[in-house]
């Protein structure tokens, strides 16, 4: 994480923001994969190869993952990809920037999966929630949020084209 410009209103040695890169977010998300779960005893889901994209126009982070589903209800396993996007929020107890309220933006399945679109979408939604809801993408060290006995905390979180900017404000 790089230190932002020095604060003009806080204290000259405390940055008024931190910025972390898309690569840092990619590294944090990558630790969750591969992901394998049985969903509702009907589907086996394997998610791999996450690719993080920043969506500054929506102030969200997107994660596209390769998906492989098997089920006794389907003749053949199906493969494809899900794109999940999420807001970011600060979780004070853990001092972490977390993914909040992930939603499935798209499901692209190959082959005969179209017949199972409703089930695949439901499995994607469950997997997204279980996998990424409240997942920390950056955790602040205590000394990053305290200086000279004054406590600070993250404020506004803004998605940029090349990273994520977290404003630091006095608590």
UniProtKB/TrEMBL annotation:
Xref: Pfam families? DUF1439 (PF07273)
* InterPro entries xrefs: DUF1439
Q: From which domain of life does this come? A: Bacteria
Annotated protein name in UniProt: DUF1439 domain-containing protein
């Amino acid at each position: 994480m790089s230190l932002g410009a020095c604060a003009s209103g806080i204290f000259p040695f405390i940055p008024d923001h931190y910025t972390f890169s898309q690569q840092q977010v990619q590294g944090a998300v990558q630790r969750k994969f591969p992901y394998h779960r049985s969903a509702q005893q009907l589907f086996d889901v394997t998610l791999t190869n996450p690719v993080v994209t920043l969506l500054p126009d929506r102030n969200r982070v997107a994660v596209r993952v390769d998906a492989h589903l098997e089920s006794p209800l389907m003749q053949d396993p199906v493969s494809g990809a899900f794109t999940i996007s999420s807001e970011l929020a600060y979780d004070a107890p853990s001092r972490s920037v977390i993914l909040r309220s992930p939603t499935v933006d798209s499901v692209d399945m190959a082959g005969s999966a179209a017949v199972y679109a409703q089930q695949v979408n439901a499995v994607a939604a469950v997997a997204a929630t279980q996998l990424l809801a409240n997942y920390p993408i950056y955790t602040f060290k205590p000394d990053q949020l305290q200086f000279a006995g004054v406590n600070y905390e993250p404020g506004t979180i803004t998605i940029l084209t090349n990273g994520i900017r977290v404003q630091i404000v006095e608590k």
